[in-house]
Amino acid sequence: MMKSLSLYLIICVSVVTLATSCRQTKLLELGANPFITHMYTADPSAHVWPDGRLYVYASHDIYPPKGCDLMDKYHVFSTDDMKNWKDHGEIVNSDMVKWGRPEGGWMWAPDCAYRNGKYYFYFPHPSETYVSSSWKIGVAVSNYPDRGFTVLDQPIPGMGGWDMIDPAVFIDDDGQAYIYYSGRGHCYGGKLKENMVELDGEITDMQGLHDFHEGAWVHKYNGKYYLSYADNFDGANRMVYCMGDSPLGPWTYKGIILAATSCAMSHGSIVEYKGEWFLFYHNSDLSHRNELRSICVDKLYYNPDGTIRLVSQHR
User: Which one of the listed residues 61, 72, 214, 291 is annotated catalytic?
Assistant: First the structure.
């Protein structure tokens, strides 16, 4: 009798353990790509914030298409299941930038960071009518991830110049924040002060990159640092990546993450959510026009040696 009871208890414990394990390892399901279809969006910057939701900050392509020079606003979207998305609306536009170009426009790829209870939204924008030499990196600050942003009266000192765009911020495990921006075939990176709006030291040119175009993004996995970006492949950018032992390199080129999409330009971000990794990017599947892009997401997988497998694009 005791032997039968012991066997019964063992079976019950095993069933409960298996059920718990299944619940813990349940994989997230993705919806169709693009996942935002009611408006045209590009340059997705994805982050997971303290409320447990995943947020995507995106630039906005104007419809009907009038060219990338007229992009002038940013939207934010969020999800808690990777399938159902909420549009929180517009959070920043060129009219809010006191130091910006009088004619507006030119609000390109953004990023966002969280520190000490505040959200810092970074965006590139020129300050003069003659655009190329007057790019700056602006910052908007809010107590919330999806609303209430106020653009600071001055851009980040010491950043900008000829076609220097695409800010991206990475905060390491020790709390040190790093900022990156790029243009004209170069990617620059440096430390941010605790206030998140000033550089802490010099900006340096990242070393070891191969065929760099634009759109740098840095993340960390198993103690290694990854810098991903768009290359110059035959007029249709691919997303490629490097690995390193420091947030500022030097970097070692590793290969392609994402093959060219239906859009000539590529820009993306990589984030972990609920135990899985995801690559966000954009394509032109809805419009078939480079000026009207739509944001997408697919799962990303690592090899045992830490290298990244080529991401499979789904629709």
Answer: 214
